[in-house]
Specification:
It contains 21 helices and six strands. It has about 500 residues and is mainly alpha-helical. The chain is flat and about 125 Å long. One of its GO terms (biological process) is mRNA splicing, via spliceosome. Belongs to the SF3A3 family. One of its GO terms (cellular component) is spliceosomal complex. It is found in: Nucleus.
């Protein structure tokens, strides 16, 4: 007996609700390690995909294109082929159920499948990472790096320098971007970054991100403000001036020029007014002639009938080439967006590479084994609950310190400092040490008081202010001394303090 359509609908709604509760329950748990975070994200992603699939099935049922749902509802109301008869419909259904159980006597009814759904929270999805990627902590761009340094648009640099350069394709000269090699390099780079991002951030909606990037790119391209391609596009669909279909400076022989393909060669020859027929090699040789020879000096036999010689080697780009340029610019925009999202990963990768350059092979292998053992031990320790009824502080090993050490250092005694924002310090040692730490120094600086030894053991703001006023009075900072600070001027315009002026006046000198 197959489930009725209405029962399938009810079960589908129940499944969606169960999965939604599991997603909430899973996200309420804070993963302790990076590996656990990846597992949690992929679990949630898988459950979301199940919800989407089930929802699509529900939509199909409610649309009822074949009328099966309508017929089933009518059958529940007793409508049969002979008319409306509730009892006849009931006994037909009862007969169907009995016949099913007669043919399947061992069939059981599952009442609660909650345990099966709870098992989803314990799954550890398999995520493939290379050895260089370190479970999603670092990028592995060695293959793309080799392609970059061996290309005409790249330059011979170190891998660490490449990690700073690959995210800035707009800095590559525009002439170097007109080759198919550069476009293929961008496609491979974007493909890797997308694959890495999907593995490390499965909950991000990459399609929505790229949709926004594309819409912003279209606006900037229309206005000619795309970074690295400023004023490249023109209104009314015309191509920019002084732009050639194929930049011959990047090809040393006609055989290399054959790589661009017959259609590109044909478009370039047509734009120059040259003949477009022949094999791909003949087209490449004909176009290669224009690299070192001006068009006006070429033999007339190379030109198509009815064409005239241009005055210079300046070819208006064909529409197909303009589309390729726009596609390259869009690839660069997507790569820049992904690099912004993976900025922290790029920084970690660069730091890791610089660290590994100072290690030998044996040290790198030992460090890798140590990381694996540490990750396993962390996961094992996280599963065990630490028994700490006295709420003792944790030691360096992540376990409570001994009680005798707790009593020896007086860690049960609390000291509060008003200058530190009523921050609590546990134990006399931590309390005495905090007077030289950044928090207390910042509080004193906000009060405008120098943090000297005179203010040790002072934790009240009022006491600190009173002590500072007394120190200033003792040093005579705020005391008015008229004999030294009151000024007098004689007839000649000389300025004296009161004591000097009085002495000179008594002597009759002024």
């Amino acid at each position: 007996m197959s489930s009725t359509l209405l029962e399938v609908t009810r079960a589908s709604h129940e499944e969606v609700e169960r999965l939604e509760r599991l997603v909430v329950k899973d996200l309420q748990t804070e993963p302790p390690t990076n590996k656990d975070r990846l597992h949690q994200s992929h679990r949630v992603r898988n459950m979301i995909e199940q919800v989407i699939d089930t929802t699509h099935k529900l939509v199909d049922i409610y649309e009822d294109k074949d009328g099966a749902r309508k017929d089933e509802i009518a059958a529940l109301g007793g409508q049969t082929a002979t008319g409306t008869n509730v009892f006849s419909a009931f006994y037909d259904r009862l007969k169907e159920i009995r016949e099913y159980h007669r043919r399947h006597p061992a069939a059981r009814v599952i009442i609660d499948t909650g345990d099966e759904y709870e098992q989803l929270l314990k799954e550890e999805p398999q995520i493939e990472f290379s050895g260089e990627e370190g479970s999603g902590r670092y990028l592995d761009l060695h293959e793309l790096f080799n392609e970059y340094i061996n290309s005409k648009f790249g330059e011979p640099i170190e891998y660490t320098a490449y990690l700073d350069v690959f995210s800035q394709p707009q800095k590559i000269p525009r002439k170097a971007k007109s080759t198919r090699q550069y476009q293929e390099y961008l496609q491979k780079l974007l493909e890797y970054l997308v694959y890495f991002f999907e593995r490390t951030e499965p909950l991000q909606d990459l399609d929505r991100i790229f949709s926004k990037v594309t819409s912003e790119f279209e606006e900037e391209w229309t206005m000619g403000k795309v970074e690295g391609w400023e004023n490249n596009g023109q209104e009314n669909g015309s191509a920019p001036e002084n732009h050639t279909v194929i930049d011959l400076d990047y090809y040393s022989t006609a055989e290399e020029l054959m790589v661009v393909g017959p259609e590109k060669l044909k478009e370039a020859l047509r734009a120059l007014g040259l003949k477009t027929g022949g094999t791909i090699q003949q087209r490449a040789e004909r176009l290669f002639l224009t690299k070192n020879t001006p068009l006006e000096k070429l033999d007339r036999k190379h030109f198509a009938k009815g064409s005239r010689k241009p005055e210079q080697n300046c070819v208006v780009a064909a529409p197909q080439v303009g589309d390729d340029v726009k596609e390259i610019a869009l690839l660069e925009a997507k790569i820049r967006k992904l690099c912004d999202l993976l900025d922290e990963t790029i920084v970690r990768t660069r730091e890791n590479v610089e660290k590994k350059q100072a290690l030998t092979y044996e040290e790198m292998e030992a460090e890798r084994e140590e990381d694996d053992v540490q990750a396993e031990s962390e996961s094992d320790e996280d599963d065990q609950q630490i028994y700490n009824p006295l709420k003792l502080p944790m030691g360096w090993d992540g376990k409570p310190i001994p009680y005798w050490l707790y009593k020896l250092h007086g860690l049960g005694q609390e000291f509060k400092c008003e200058i530190c924002g009523n921050h609590s310090y546990w134990g006399r040692r931590a309390y005495e040490r905090h007077f030289k730490e950044w928090r207390h120094q910042h509080g004193m600086r906000c009060l405008g008081i120098p943090n000297t030894k005179n203010f040790n053991e002072i934790t009240s703001i009022e006491e600190a202010k009173l002590l500072w006023e007394r120190i200033q009075e003792r040093q005579g900072v705020n005391k008015w001394r008229p004999d030294l600070e009151e000024e007098y001027e004689d007839q000649e315009g000389n300025i004296y303090n009161k004591k000097t002026y009085t002495d000179l006046q008594r002597q009759g000198l002024i």
